[in-house]
Amino acid sequence: MRFINRSLTKPLRMILTTKYIFLSSIRSDLIFANGLYEETGVAVRFSRTPTLGKIVGDPVWERARNSGSTKLTIESFNNVESGGFQRKLLKFALNGFKEIITPSQQLADFVKKWGISNPVSMISNGVQVLGMSNQPKEFDLVTVSRLVPWKNVDLLIRIAAKKNLKLCVIGDGPENLKLHSLATELNAQVTFTGALAQDKVSQQVAKAKYFALLSTYEGMSFALLEALGAGIPAIVSNAAGNVAVIQNGVNGYVVDISNEISCGNLIAEILSSSSDYQKVSEGALQSVIKNYSIDRTLANTETKLLSLK
Fold first, then answer.
1. Over the stretch 12-50, which tens digit does the pLDDT of each residue have?
2. Rg (Cα) of the chain, in Å, rounded?
């Protein structure tokens, strides 16, 4: 393992990272890249080590959203924005990989639009199945995410305030202070835990009736799958990565977030109706056992890696 000081300038960090990846790659039969795409792409062009890349989002769009240089959704951004030099660099890097996988079909389609010449396919994310928990329910809703604009945690807080719901927010990010201020201003019943170790996340999620994910964009959320695997049904937006997982009334519910009032009303209605909860909870657990177990994902990824030799 190598540590690179973040106080160094970004160009120097990238050069050092590329060097260390190159040195590791010449001693390796295969490379699996789940990040550092630009550095890995340059390194393996020299080492020629077969590389499988896993793309879990659009880093160019995410940087643009976080910097405030765009307010476009990921769909609009990929349709109308070139992405400039960052996109060209990412395209160059990814074309150095032998194959690319993504956790959702929508993301695979985006990657192909970037001008990637090598095969792009989908392998769903997978998680350990924890099974049902007998934890007492302290929260109506829980969400686990990076606190960034497209996760729409502010929408959840406003709905919690208006509908007198208890909400738990797990995670950290650039929106942290803004969201704390909003919750205080609205006198919302929100518990912010910050970032937690994985075992603590699972314990906290089990204390909620429903897992909520009202994002504008999702590839395929590990946190969503983990909640389902603990028998916690989900209330999600109709982002492509969410509706690929959630079947309405089977393992959770899909809500339209374009109208905040009707969205809040529907969430409150779902929470007030307990007749189907046990059925949907069981459906949540079974959906992960059947489609999103870690064993299945690892087996599919291993098969893909070995095919690169």
1. 999 999 999 999 999 999 999 999 999 999 999 999 999
2. 20
What are 251-269's pLDDT values in tens digits?
999 999 999 999 999 999 9
Taking alpha carbons only, the member of 191, 192, 209, 298 closest to residue 252 is 209
Domains of the chain, start order: 10-126+296-306 (3.40.50), 139-291 (3.40.50.2000)
pLDDT of 3 strictly over 90: no
The length of the chain in residues reads 309
| Residues 263, 256: Cα–Cα separation, whole Å | 6
Burial call 152-180: b when 16+ CB within 10 Å, e when fewer: bbbbbbbbbbebebbbbbbbeeebbeebe
Q: Determine the residue type at 294.
A: I
